[in-house]
Specification:
By secondary structure, this protein is of the alpha/beta class. The chain has 14 helices and 25 strands. α2 packs parallel to α14, α6 packs across α14 and α11 crosses α13. It is globular and about 70 Å long. About 15% of the residues have low confidence.
Length: about 550
């Protein structure tokens, strides 16, 4: 069993990948005249704003800025359009489990031993995720210091293009009591709508988007004066053929570079450009522009634990639509329609697991299935979380993943929430509403044993894993891809998302978050792109009148 097979077990469990689903045709690409391969870019370019990362926040940000300025977007991945693995809900698992070199999902394993992935595609994580769409709470908006009216207007702007009301089918209805139902970026036909769709708002004459454009570093002026701050003035990026290009800001004092490369990419790029912990940068031979020890700190990933419930009945394909918000700060979510052939597991390839773990997984699944396994999952995700870790460079190659450790359950408060969440899941599984989706001869302990023996991560199992919910949480933890931090507000950027210690540089994306907003952050990440784009344009206009 290779890494791909282990990853598929996780992804398919959340995917709702089903043999009895209806087929969905991939959506045709919009006719964007301003989107090109980076190989066609000039050697030298000049723009008012350079946005690094055409992801979940970068696309709405760039579209908004283009209404009043010339904008360059540099995206290291390709286009989501025309790719059925991305655009069709039924193929959700395929894109996340794709390990090819140019996959829209770049996989990594955190130093905690947990499988994870980062987006490498126009539209960012919105092109890969399960589609759940929900706002941040009023309290979250207040603590962030955002203008509530502008926040609501920005959400509405996003939703006009990408948000839909999902159907409520049997599996989701069985766990609906006491929950809230969110929107979805999948429409009624199962077509995904990503943040890239928000580029439809862009002014075509004012924007250029280059794909497979990997930014190597940000360029800063060398002042040589202790009282003068470094000023960002350009970037160096590489196209898919390996050719370097230089993009510079125009002469206006209002022009800026904005990093929207995500919770891994943004702190990584700051470090590669000389902003980060001095000792760490010098160890990699990087000249220090600003000694900023908080870059890469505060990395957090909302830990997820789940039970897979094999079903005697065929169940519909449903990704996460219903979320229970508990009194102990944990979310309970569900997805269904899992059905995958035994060939997903029995690959005969080299394994990232130990032989013993592989044997346990195969024996467990053999006891449940001969040809096809079907069912769904109920999961719990910790709000926050309290536990945090750090990100560091492994190499100075921007194509490589950095090293990241999230320190899952380092703080007892998070572990206690997980235990309470798992107890809630057990209550749901034992409920009358859920009874028809369970095999009568399979008690909850058998479901726990199943999860313990599945290769959901690379963490060691303990003797008590199957009998202690505390150990179960620690040993079977997974990601739900909501990691954040690394360039946090008031630590790396100010309240206007300007990078501390330098001029003409901002970071606008999930790396600035202290906590993950809402039950899924994507709506808020898209919203903040629009929100800050409006603010920046307003500042540009009012400065021009002075």
């Amino acid at each position: 069993m290779d890494l791909r097979s282990s990853w598929e077990l996780i992804v398919i469990a959340l995917a709702g990948f089903s043999m009895f689903r209806s087929f969905c045709h991939s959506e045709k690409a919009p006719y964007y005249t301003f989107v090109h391969e980076a190989t066609s870019a000039p050697h030298v370019l000049y723009y008012d704003y350079i946005v690094v990362g055409g992801g979940t926040s970068g696309c709405p940000l760039a579209a908004t800025l283009s209404q009043g300025a010339r904008v360059l977007v540099l995206e290291r991945g390709g286009s989501p359009y025309g790719n059925p693995k991305i655009m069709n809900r039924a193929n959700f698992a395929d894109s996340l489990s794709d390990t090819s070199p140019n996959s829209p999902s770049q996989q990594f394993i955190s130093d905690d031993g947990v499988y994870n992935a980062r987006a490498r595609v126009l539209g960012g994580g919105s092109a890969l995720n399960a589609g759940f769409y929900t706002h941040a709470s009023v309290d979250y908006v207040r603590k962030a210091g955002w203008n509530p009216e502008f926040v609501d207007e920005s959400y509405a702007w996003v939703e006009n293009k990408v948000a839909f009301e999902p159907p409520m089918l049997q599996w989701q209805s069985a766990v609906r009591d006491g929950t809230k139902v969110g929107g979805s970026i999948f429409d009624k036909n199962g077509h995904r709508h990503t943040a890239a769709d928000l580029l439809e708002y862009a002014e075509p004459r004012n924007i250029s988007v280059y794909l497979h454009a990997t930014v190597h570093k940000i360029l800063f002026t060398e002042t040589g004066k202790p009282w003068s701050r470094p000023r960002a003035y350009g970037v160096v990026f590489e196209d898919s053929s390996g050719l370097k290009h230089w993009a510079y800001l125009g002469r206006s004092s209002k022009n800026e570079i904005i990093i929207s490369a995500g919770a891994l990419g943004s702190p990584q790029l700051l470090m590669l450009s000389g902003i980060g912990p001095a000792n760490h940068l010098q160890a990699h031979g990087i000249s220090v522009v600003v000694d900023q020890p908080m870059v890469g700190q505060g990395m957090a990933d909302n830990p997820m634990n789940l039970l897979f419930i094999p079903s005697p009945l065929p169940v519909e394909v449903s990704l996460i639509q219903v979320v229970g918000i508990t009194r102990f700060d944990s979310y309970i979510e569900t997805a269904s329609g899992l059905s995958f052939t035994w060939s997903h597991v029995q690959t005969g390839q080299p394994s990232a697991m130990t032989a013993e773990a592989m044997y346990r997984a195969i024996e467990t699944l053999n006891s449940l299935v001969t040809e096809t396994l079907q069912g769904g999952v109920i999961l719990e995700k910790i709000i926050g979380p309290v536990s945090t870790g750090e990100l560091k460079l492994r190499t100075t190659n921007p194509h490589d993943n950095p090293s990241v450790k999230f320190n899952y359950f380092k703080e007892p408060e998070d572990l206690n929430r997980c235990v309470q969440g798992m107890r809630t899941i057990i209550e749901v599984v034992n409920s009358r509403a859920f009874s028809k989706f369970r095999h009568k001869d399979m008690p909850v302990q058998a479901l726990i044993d199943l999860m313990v023996n599945l290769p959901v991560n690379l963490r060691p199992r303990h003797f008590s894993t199957a009998i202690s919910l505390e150990q179960f949480c620690t040993d079977t933890v997974m990601t739900i891809w909501h990691y954040h931090g690394g360039c946090q507000v008031r630590k790396v950027v100010d309240s206007d998302y300007k990078v501390l210690g330098v001029d003409k540089l901002r970071v606008i994306d999930g790396s600035t978050f202290i906590d993950s907003p809402g039950t899924n952050p994507q709506a808020t990440v898209m919203m903040i792109g629009r929100y800050m784009g409006r603010r920046i344009l307003y500042e540009r206009l009012t400065q021009g009148r002075k």
